């Protein structure tokens, strides 16, 4: 039988060495993966204890990453966690808390774009500047 994880149980696993994430209604134990995560372990810690689906999708994880996650599956989320669909009282407050966690993921998005643009510029600067000089 598939294990069901409550929001309270998920929140207990939100520290270094004991980190669970909820993504697309599934709960994953990423504790052993924190040191190997390309974005760093802190990104995973920031998303622990909440519904991290938006953060996960905003980054654009590869199919290989999605396959790798299958081995980390703990179970299914019992109800909803964080966000506007929170079933606990004070749903608006929970939505803000989840949004705050999302800010960490979105905050990571801007530096990644800047770095990618810089890499692209340096890789293609000769072509870009060469075409302008000959025009």
Written description of the protein model:
53% of the residues lie in helices and 14% in strands. It is α+β, with helices and mostly antiparallel strands and 135 residues long. A 5-stranded mixed sheet has the order 1-5-4-3-2. β2 and β3 form a beta hairpin. It is elongated and about 60 Å long.
Using the alpha-carbon principal axes, give the shape.
Answer: elongated
| Major pleated sheet | 5 strands, mixed
| Overall radius of gyration | 19 Å
- Helix-residue proportion: 40-55%
The end-to-end span amounts to 68 Å
Summed up, the helix count is 5
Are there runs of 5+ residues with pLDDT below 50, and where?
Answer: 83-103
Average predicted confidence as pLDDT: 77
Arrangement of strands in the largest sheet: 1-5-4-3-2
What kind of oligomer do you see?
single chain
Query: Which sequence of SSEs, written as H and E, runs from N to C?
Result: EHEEEHHHEH
What is the total tally of β strands? 5
In short:
The chain is α+β, with helices and mostly antiparallel strands. The chain has helices at 7-12, 41-47, 53-59, 63-69, 91-134; strands at residues 4-5, 14-15, 18-23, 26-29, 73-77.
